[in-house]
Specification:
Strands 1-2 form a two-stranded antiparallel sheet. Helices cover 69% and strands 2% of the residues. By secondary structure, it is an all-alpha fold. It is globular. The protein has ten helices and two strands, in the order H-E-H-H-E-H-H-H-H-H-H-H.
């Protein structure tokens, strides 16, 4: 399975849509994807069009599109981050939007690297490490939600930091320092102790939203995408 398929099922994913490529080249409409008003899909399409504007003229790559299952996961992650930020004065209320944008942009760029065969044999071990780290985060989140008094902030933070390190090692030879900064912005927020306490603490006011996110993660696990 390609990197983006399991990356965006935790945080990031992309799928083929030749109609979007044709649309970007001709100025036509976007590929029908179902569902409206999704912040994650809107960001994905905007980032996609910007990148495609650079590659269509050279014939490189195919278009990338965020699928429905991943859109739901990203939207619920955004809702969780946004509600936590608004309820906690120590968290920057502008960060959830930035985190979501950075996730989408990084996923599309990594997808382009794969589709253009710019990832070499040495990257396979890095991909495997990302895969393992992301699965550990997903399973921890599900466990902390489903099992009362099981939240272990130190363990979840270590797992998230492992993801950060793995992603940075993968993209460093291929993308700019700005992409490295995007990666750090994502994990800086997700690892923030006040965010984690707000989401996973006892009697958290965000438990219902966390449940929606966990439902998306469980579906991805059951489907073998994680």
């Amino acid at each position: 399975m390609e990197l983006q398929s399991w990356l965006l099922y935790h945080l990031v994913a992309v799928t083929d849509c030749n109609q979007v490529m044709q649309s970007a080249a001709t100025g036509g409409g976007a590929c029908p994807v179902g569902g409206t008003g999704s912040r994650a899909r809107d960001l994905g399409l905007r980032a996609q069009k910007k990148l495609l504007g650079r590659v269509v003229s050279s014939g490189a790559g195919r278009s990338l599109l965020i699928d429905d299952a991943t859109t739901s996961l990203l939207d619920n992650l955004y809702k969780l981050m946004d509600k936590a930020a608004r309820a906690n004065p120590t968290l920057d209320k502008k960060q959830p939007e930035k985190v979501l944008k950075n996730i989408v942009k990084l996923s599309i760029k990594i997808g382009l690297l794969q589709r253009n065969q710019q990832l070499g044999p040495m990257d396979e071990a890095k991909l495997a490490e990302i895969r393992t780290a992301l699965r550990a985060v997903a399973m921890a989140v599900v466990s902390f939600y489903e099992l009362e008094f099981s939240f272990d902030k130190a363990y979840l933070t270590r797992s998230l930091e492992r993801c950060r390190t793995a992603v940075r090692l993968l993209i460093k030879p291929h993308l700019t320092d700005k992409s490295q900064d995007r990666c750090d912005q994502v994990f800086d927020f997700l690892c923030h102790p006040d965010f984690l306490d707000s989401v996973f603490g006892q009697d958290s006011e965000h438990r219902a939203t966390l449940g929606l996110l966990v439902g998306d993660v469980n579906k991805a696990l059951d489907a073998g995408h994680l």
